[in-house]
Design goal:
The chain is α/β, with parallel strands linked by helices. Helix content is 54%, strand content 10%. It contains 13 helices and six strands. A four-stranded mixed β-sheet has the order 3-5-4-6, with helices on both faces. Strands 1-2 form a two-stranded parallel ribbon. α11 crosses α12. The longest helix is centred in the C-terminal third of the chain and has 36 residues. The two termini are 31 Å apart.
Length: 343
C-alpha cells in the first residue's frame, strides 16, 4: 500500500483472497475475501482457479469492466518502478493483459542454491516472455502466475472456470484461452521481487507441478492446437530432458560420429543455457549491494548450481510423469512461519 501511495497512486483497492479468514485490520483500501467452503464453480475448478473465479462472481465483484487488476502471489513485492510500469501500461490501453519481470535476489536470500538456480527464470522472462509480448503481443509460450495485469471485463470473459485440468497451472490455461479468444498482451517495464523456494524439496515440487499443469493444458481439448503448438513443443522438450541429459554420459561411453552441424547446435544450446544463468545473476544481484568479490562469486555459484539444477529438473520430470496430475502443492515462502518451525 505504501509503495502505491509513494508513487502517487490514489484510486486503488487491495483485495486479499483466501480460503481461511486472516482477519486483516479494517482499512478503506483493503478488502478481505474469504472463499466459502461450499462454493463450487460450474466446471468444478479447484485450488487457485476456484478462488480467483469466486472473486469474479457478480455478487462478489465490486469492480467495473474497465477497471484493472494486478494479480500478485502472497510473497510478491511491488516496487515503485513496477507501479509506474503498470500505470504506463494501463494508460496505453492497447492491450487488456500484461506482465513484467520478477527477480529473486533483491531481498534477504533464504536458500542460495535455489535462488541461484532461479536466475535462469529471470533470463527467461527477459528473453522469451518479453519477446513474445513486445513483438507478437501473444502468449506463445504462456506466462507466469504473478505480476499479471488484466482488465476486469477481459478477465471475466476468459474466466478461471476451466475444470480440474485448468486448475493445476491456472495461469497457463488462462493465457492460452485468452490467446484463443483473440486477446492481446504486452510486456510491462519495471520489476517485482519474489523469493525462491526455501528448500530443495519445495523447489522440486514446484517444478513438478509446473510440468504436470502445463501438460494438462497442452492435452486439453478446450484449447485449439494452433494456439498451443509452441507451448507443446516447449513442454515436450522439457519432458525429454532425461534423454538429452543421459547423452552426456552415453556420448563418452558409446561415442558415435555426428555431423559437425549437430555438434555445433548442441554446443550452442549448452552455451545459451549457461549464459542465461549468468545473465540472470547479473540482472538479479546488485553489484553495489554485494560488492565486486561477492558479485563474481554469485556468478560463479550460478554456474556451479547447473548440475544440481539439472538433476532436480530430471527428477521433477520423471516424478511428474508418473505422479498424480491433479494436485496443487503450495510452496512455503513465509519466513516467519519457517522461523517458528525451527524454534
Amino acid at each position: 500500500m505504501n509503495t502505491c501511495l509513494d508513487t502517487g497512486l490514489e484510486n486503488f483497492l487491495i483485495e486479499v483472497v483466501t480460503d481461511k479468514a486472516v482477519h486483516l485490520a479494517h482499512h478503506r483500501r483493503i478488502r478481505e475475501i474469504v472463499v466459502p467452503k461450499e462454493y463450487k464453480t460450474r466446471t468444478g475448478a479447484l485450488f487457485k482457479s476456484r478462488a480467483l473465479q469466486y472473486c469474479l462472481e457478480d455478487n462478489v465483484n465490486v469492480l467495473n469492466d474497465n477497471d484493472w487488476i494486478v494479480h500478485l502471489d502472497e510473497e510478491t513485492l511491488l516496487t515503485e518502478n513496477s507501479v509506474r510500469g503498470i500505470i504506463n501500461f494501463v494508460l496505453d490501453g492497447k492491450h487488456p493483459f500484461g506482465q513484467g519481470l520478477i527477480t529473486y535476489a533483491n531481498e534477504n536470500v533464504v536458500n542460495w542454491l535455489t535462488t541461484l538456480a532461479d536466475s535462469f527464470r529471470v533470463s527467461d522472462d527477459m528473453g522469451k516472455l518479453r519477446l513474445q509480448f513486445k513483438l507478437f503481443h501473444k502468449p506463445l509460450f504462456s506466462w507466469k502466475g504473478s505480476y499479471v495485469v488484466t482488465q476486469v471485463g477481459a478477465e471475466r470473459q476468459v474466466s478461471f472456470d476451466n475444470g480440474i485440468d485448468g486448475s493445476v497451472a491456472e495461469d497457463c490455461f488462462f493465457a492460452m484461452r485468452a490467446f484463443a479468444q483473440g486477446f492481446t498482451f504486452n510486456f510491462i517495464e519495471g520489476e517485482m521481487y519474489e523469493k525462491s523456494p526455501f528448500t530443495l524439496l519445495d523447489f522440486l515440487q514446484q517444478r513438478k507441478r509446473w510440468l504436470q499443469g502445463i501438460l494438462l493444458v497442452v492435452h486439453s481439448k478446450m484449447i485449439p492446437l494452433r494456439h498451443k503448438l509452441l507451448l507443446g513443443i516447449s513442454v515436450y522438450s522439457w519432458v525429454t530432458m532425461p534423454l538429452s541429459t543421459s547423452n552426456i554420459l552415453f556420448a563418452g561411453l558409446y561415442p558415435i560420429p555426428c555431423p559437425n552441424i549437430v555438434d555445433f547446435v548442441c554446443a550452442f544450446i549448452a552455451a545459451v543455457n549457461i549464459y542465461m544463468y549468468v545473465f540472470g545473476v547479473i540482472k538479479s544481484f546488485s553489484l553495489y549491494r554485494f560488492g565486486l568479490v561477492k558479485f563474481l562469486a554469485c556468478v560463479l555459484g550460478a554456474v556451479c548450481t547447473i548440475p544440481v539444477n539439472v538433476v532436480i529438473e530430471n527428477v521433477a520430470v520423471i516424478w511428474g510423469l508418473v505422479g498424480k496430475k491433479h494436485k496443487f502443492y503450495v510452496v512455503q515462502k513465509d519466513v516467519r512461519a519457517l522461523e517458528s518451525v525451527v524454534v
